[in-house]
Automatic annotation (TrEMBL):
It is a multi-pass membrane protein. The chain crosses the membrane at residues 20-39, 62-83. GO terms for molecular function: transmembrane transporter activity. This is Major facilitator superfamily (MFS) profile domain-containing protein. It is found in: Membrane. Residues 17-102 form the Major facilitator superfamily (MFS) profile domain. It comes from Manduca sexta (Tobacco hawkmoth). GO terms for cellular component: membrane. Keywords: Membrane, Transmembrane, Transmembrane helix. InterPro entries: MFS_dom.
Amino acid sequence: MNIVITKLMFKNGTRINQYLFAVLITIPLLNFGMVQGWLSPMISVLQSSEGPSPDPYTSSDISWMTSVTYITAIIFGAPMGHLTDRYGRKVMTLVTTLSLIV
């Protein structure tokens, strides 16, 4: 069974390749949505005294937590553009997807 899947995966234009890369491409989008979306319903929990941290989070702390993803996008935007031009879109998409999986 494993040999059959391996043979099908490396042929050009197979359906397994399309499904595999469709799943891999959606992982960064799913991860970004989870990172941005989890905070909205959790703000009241994080600011309460029964929250997961010993001290309740302040509005400033929550503001920093939401802005970190955008700050990293500003920092890594130019290098990722250069690396994408150098190595190609598919390779860099796989690299970023693998980093999100790990």
